[in-house]
Amino acid sequence: MVTLQPLPNATARWKATVGGFLSSGWYHANQTLLLGIALAVAGNFLISISLNLQKYSHVQSARLANQKPIYRSKLWWCGIILMGIGEMGNFAAYGFAAAMLVAPLGSVAVIGSALISVLFQNENVRSEGVLGGTLTIAGTFLLVTFAPHVVQEPTARRIQSYLVSWQVLIYVILGVITFCVLLYFYKRRDVKHVVVLLTMAALLASPTIISAKAVAAMVILSVKGAMQLTYPIFYLMFIIMVLSCVFQVKFLSQAEKLYDAKVVIPVNYVFFTVSAIVTGAIFYQELQGMSLLSGFMFLFGCLLSFVGVFLITQNRGKEHLTSFYIDSGHIPGLTMRRGKIQPESNSLSYGSLLNEGESVKTQN
């Protein structure tokens, strides 16, 4: 007679997961994963601090009567140094955790930047920002909880075998064709829509993620004693990482020049995260062994983070639109008959020039 064993339901599995978090055995078994998460969170938080320091240094420089180049500001250099340390933390995180887990944790930079702006730059707290922060934190918790806990050591030989696998070759061919089509419209047809620019940046993010994780993992293995730096694949991946980063930044900068930050930031976060998930699943096979429940909850956490980042950036976009004013004393070559060209903030014409026809005549 065959005895049927009851299948564990979702509630029992959730209790086992929570109990696992509290046990020392789970902690010791997932030390590498936790180190990767800690590096990603700390790196993104340092990036948020650096962005606010650079913003504050620009504001302080604009208030000076005799403006100096921004690179002479010590505060600005502190922001640049923190940015470099934060990016190094993100880079190292790819060597310890799955790529599809590290990339979505970029939402920590958005939350941190918004929080620092409220605490230290006296920005107003809006309900959209609070809701967005709550959703992003909840989404981040689900991401960390249900992300694939796959312990991988991508050695040089294993990366070489990944590169010639049929699924990676198909993925690369489709990515190259899509990028070439978008580049044609961008160059020849002068199509510079935000979706086109950020899609090209996301396509370039795929080789960036592949190469960054490969380089980080091989460096870590070499430090542990398993030398990987003698393989040519290491230097090939390093070159791919540098070149893809350079061109990715180019398209991101173009998007930031043409469109508002409240459009660029959430769209780029969504596209980059999707690119990281697809790349991790195809190249590093990070979804292997993942249950249906874990996959659903992981994607639901991504969705919450997407919505949260969108709400935070929309909230900050409204704040920035009412924060700045135009000072005619800082417009080179313009002589105005009035002391200022920006009306009072409670005026119906706030944000527009007073009698634009006269200012145009003055320039002529």
What does this structure look like?
- The chain has 364 residues and is mainly α.
- Helices cover 71% and strands 0% of the residues.
- Helix 3 runs antiparallel to helix 4 (74-93), helix 6 packs antiparallel against helix 7 (127-146) and helix 10 (194-224) packs across helix 12 (261-282).
- It is globular.
- Mean pLDDT is 81; it is low at 1-14 and 320-364.
Q: Key features?
A:
disordered C terminus, disordered N terminus, mainly alpha, 364 residues
Which secondary structure elements does this structure contain, and how are they paired or packed?
Elements: H1 10-22, H2 24-29, H3 31-63, H4 74-93, H5 99-102, H6 107-120, H7 127-146, H8 156-163, H9 166-187, H10 194-224, H11 232-258, H12 261-282, H13 292-321, H14 356-363
Helix pairs in contact: 3-4, 3-6, 6-7, 6-13, 7-13, 9-10, 10-11, 10-12, 12-13
Gyration radius, in Å:
24 Å
Helical content stands at over 70%
Overall residue-averaged pLDDT value? 81
**Alpha plus pi helix count:** 14
Spatial separation of the terminal alpha carbons: 99 Å
Return the structural class: mainly alpha
Strands, total number: 0
Kindly estimate the percentage of residues that lie in beta strands according to DSSP.
under 5%
Low-confidence stretches: 1-14, 320-364
Shape: globular
Order of helices and strands: HHHHHHHHHHHHHH
Sketch the major β-sheet.
none
